[in-house]
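Continuing the series of single-chain predictions for the mutant panel. This is the parent chain; the variants come on the following pages.
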Amino acid sequence: MTTEQSKAHHVGEWASLRHTSREIAEAIFEVANYDERLAEQIWSQQGSDEVLIRAFKKTDQDVLTWDDKTVERKNV
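Parent structure:
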């Protein structure tokens, strides 16, 4: 059984490998209900409004990255 701690570690590692902010990765996995194949599809589409809204709710930062691309809060 996967614990919350191992999920968090996995998401952090996944984000790092994809040059994506942790907040965006967490939001992707939430939208994908922790299905890694679906998460990968969402990530490759790069720009899901639902993901970006969730991601910016997790932080007070005004800029996040999605595959090394800058996403600004004001554009969401």
